[in-house]
Fold:
Amino acid sequence: MQGTLQLRDVSISAGTQPVLNAINLEVGEGELHLLLGPNGSGKSSLLAGIMGLPPFRVTCGEILFRGERIDGLPTDARARLGIGMAFQRPPSLEGVTVRRFREVLGASSSHMAEAEALDLNSFDDREVNVGFSGGEIKRWEVFKLFLQTPRFLLFDEPESGVDLEHIAGIGGAINRMAHSLDSEGARRSALIITHTGLILDYVDADAGHMMIDGRVVHSGKAGELFAHVQRRGYKLPVG
Amino acid sequence: MLKQLKNTAELSEEEKSLLARVGYQGEESRAGTCVLVDQSVRCASVGDPGVEIMPLREALIQYDWVQDLMFGLVDPGESDHIKQAAEDVHDPVGHFVRVKAGAKVRLPVQTFSLIETPQGRQFLHNITVIEEDAEVDLISGAAVPSGVHSGHHISIEECYLREGAVCRSVSIEEWGADMQVHSYARTDLARGAHSISNQILMTPLKHHFSQSRATLAEDAVCNDRTVIFAPAGSNRTMESETLLKGKGARSESLTRMVTAGGNVVNRALIVGEAPGTKGYLGCDGLKLTDEGEILSMPGVLAKTADAQLSHEASVGMISEEKMAYLMSTGMDEDAARDLIVQGFLNLKEQELPPTVRMALEKMIAAARSGSM
Ligand SMILES: Nc1ncnc2c1ncn2[C@@H]1O[C@H](COP(=O)(O)OP(=O)(O)OP(=O)(O)O)[C@@H](O)[C@H]1O
Ligand SMILES: [Mg+2]
Structure:
């Protein structure tokens, strides 16, 4: 079966600075993949390259989403095809309230239960990411994806800096989102960056990829790879 | 109970819908209404016993103290326009609004001016008095029909807030693209008076010069917010002075300027003249295009040792990071830019009449697409 997202020999630069080299990766419909790797290895850059965020651009290779090449498309076109991203460090939007943001996205109010689950139900009059605490930012970024309901979900460290109680909220929300069907009845897929692995208590990941120095150096079963990293650090598993 | 003043007429439906864009609502939902068309007072009505509205000419005859208020805050020597007004042999044209001592006026009072004659010249002198401990919301605006492109509007506003008076005001202007506007506003805040004002200057016009000065007595408070939008071909120069004369007087003034090709000059000065005064000036500019300039010059002057005065100024382009963040949710470039600009201008829903808000959103969108 053809993957929902395919990266074929993809190299990505930040401006003129090469950061990722010859990445091959495939995520199938309904699959959840983990992306592991030390600080600075290029995990966020990979997500940015998939989403098409400046200054990142694909300098070599191709990215396909549901069989269609997207690496030349602007960010909004990729989003409208069904890719969404929870940012690691989103910008703050002064003067733009959560309510207004929802309205412009044309999101229905049927997500209020999710706002409640993420402890964000009193946030309608807050300005997006302005003065949000670290944990609030993470919860908002997950909630934002409920407003968009993309078919392919990119999570950049969704649980970093989140207290244990709220991790349960975030984990549960990601799990619900991942297991809901999109408007065409297709199963959603996700690529999740994590350092802590805490998210694994809430979601069943299929595969994991280890990234070092701008390359995917190993791919395998998610649980096994994370256990290996916990024991041995970011060293190549032998055999 | 709506009292129509004698010698005044109804507004046409066209005039009403034009004024609705700058905040007009049916007179039954206002405590008072006054509309000046070209060089005369077209209609004036009052629906609240705490409010008095009449043409300035009549107020001068009815109350002998009004003559002392006229040119009480403004010196004819300050500018040629003011001098011209002071020496004019004709009757002054403008409104007189009085809110009686202690009145807590429930509905807003609205005042507007319209220029309906192309190449018209409008010269207004308005006087507003909010008496001791009175409280009122004021909505004021200026508009021209779409057929009027050129003309000249000159206004002198003198506003007196007596002890403990509270005045919340919103003022919105829509002019023709080739018009010139000169406005001179003076506000006197007596002890403990509080003024909260929002000024919205968004439509294109050829040249706008605005000069304002507020004088604050002991414990008076002034909160201003101004949003300025300058599409290509617009030039706006704003000069403001806030004089903190009384002990403990405070002022906070925030100005947001956006240029889509036009020029904005903003000179703002706060003077701390008495102990315990506090003042803050925030002036932020956003450039949407390479054309157009924003010159922002906030200044603070402390005349006493313990005045706390500060200012911040910034001018920048829309951040690429914010655009990308919004576009990653599927918003197209235009929607993302509009949202950022609206956010920057910080047009809080609750402070603006909905009709005005919608008109402003249209303006932002139109300026972006170059159709203004
Ligand atoms: N705009 C940029 N210009 C130049 N170099 C960049 C830019 N953005 C990222 N880099 C570099 O690319 C490399 C990968 O960064 P990236 O943010 O993708 O790492 P990461 O794996 O997400 O790390 P972390 O776990 O700390 O979040 C780093 O060396 C970083 O300094
Ligand atoms: Mg990262």
Residues A 14-15, 17, 19, 37, 39-45, 55, 88 surround adenosine-5'-triphosphate (ligand 1) (CB under 6 Å). Chain B touches chain A through 24 residues (CB under 8 Å). The CA atoms of residues 62 and 183 of chain B lie 27 Å apart.
